[in-house]
């Protein structure tokens, strides 16, 4: 089918197969156009529990994921289960089930169709699906790129999941505070010492400041006063500001790492918000 200049309005595309169509980027979708949804609820990936994020997906992704997961095909008349991926007509034939490279191309073209229609927030789910397929594509996507996409997905859901990015940001800030309290902040601010000598009518003075030192056990380190100072260091790191605190060598490196990681997570969170409200 050639989808150039085709306009669909109030159409249910939950089971529509786009594989084999041409010019999908010129397709126009209006009204209450419906697509399939990702499964709801929690599931297991190995031994770890996971939850699919709510998004619109293509039927081809449903078929591929059901095939990879080894789900049984539905019998005639059996209703699909919302918590599982839906198997396709050719579920038992891998050669006729679209692979991630094919599905990524479909998502890319439909994403462009939404963007050309000035509906960039509506295109967000299709960008997410495209990145997911690229992350799982072992033939067309290099291993290094898949690892980069895995990190992008984990930290912010490809720049589309603000809650994930801000959760990581709060986790990183909390870890920074704990590390600074435990091994970073000195027990006391070092006091400068001035020494000098008098030779006749000439005075020579020399002021030195000892290096910050951390003494005492854990009860002396885990105090509210130190928590407040560590929190200020962490917050300043988010906005690329120097804390102005006397820090030990270990806490200097902790602050440097937080000033690199935490602003990045903040930017990813803001990018995700912008992606959902941009017009």
Account of the protein in words:
By secondary structure, the protein is mainly alpha-helical. The protein has two domains: 7-160, no CATH class; 166-192 and 212-268, no CATH class. It is 47% helix and 11% strand. The protein is built from eight helices and eight strands, in the order E-E-E-E-E-E-H-H-H-H-H-E-E-H-H-H. It has helices at residues 59-69, 100-116, 120-136, 143-156, 162-184, 218-221, 224-238, 249-277, and strands at 7-9, 28-30, 36-37, 42-45, 48-51, 56-57, 193-199, 202-208. The strands form four sheets. Strands 1-2 form a two-stranded parallel ribbon. Helix 2 runs antiparallel to helix 3 (120-136). The model has no long low-confidence stretch (mean pLDDT 82).
């Amino acid at each position: 089918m050639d989808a150039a200049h085709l306009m669909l309005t109030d159409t249910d595309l939950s089971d529509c197969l786009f594989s084999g169509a041409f010019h999908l980027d010129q397709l126009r979708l209006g009204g209450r156009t419906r697509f399939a949804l990702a499964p709801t609820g929690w599931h297991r990936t190995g031994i770890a529990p996971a939850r699919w994020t709510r998004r619109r997906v293509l039927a081809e992704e449903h078929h591929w994921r059901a095939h990879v997961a080894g789900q049984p095909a539905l019998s005639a008349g059996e209703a699909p289960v919302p918590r599982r991926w839906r198997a396709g007509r050719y579920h038992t034939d891998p050669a006729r089930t679209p692979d991630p490279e094919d599905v990524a191309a479909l998502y890319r073209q439909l994403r462009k169709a939404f963007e050309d229609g000035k509906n960039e927030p509506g295109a967000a789910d299709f960008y997410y699906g495209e990145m997911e397929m690229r992350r799982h594509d072992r033939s067309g996507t290099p291993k290094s790129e898949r690892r980069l996409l895995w990190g992008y997905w984990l930290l912010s859901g490809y720049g589309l999941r603000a809650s994930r990015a801000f959760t990581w940001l709060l986790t990183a800030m909390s870890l920074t505070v704990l590390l600074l309290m435990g091994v970073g902040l000195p027990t006391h601010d070092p006091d400068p010492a001035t020494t000098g000598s008098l030779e006749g009518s000439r005075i020579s003075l020399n002021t030195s400041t000892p290096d910050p030192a951390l003494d005492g056990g854990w009860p002396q380190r885990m105090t509210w006063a130190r928590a407040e100072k560590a929190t200020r260091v962490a917050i300043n790191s988010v906005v690329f500001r120097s804390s102005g605190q006397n820090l030990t060598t270990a806490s200097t490196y902790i602050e440097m790492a937080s000033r690199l990681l935490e602003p990045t997570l903040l930017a990813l969170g803001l990018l995700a918000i912008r992606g959902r409200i941009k017009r």
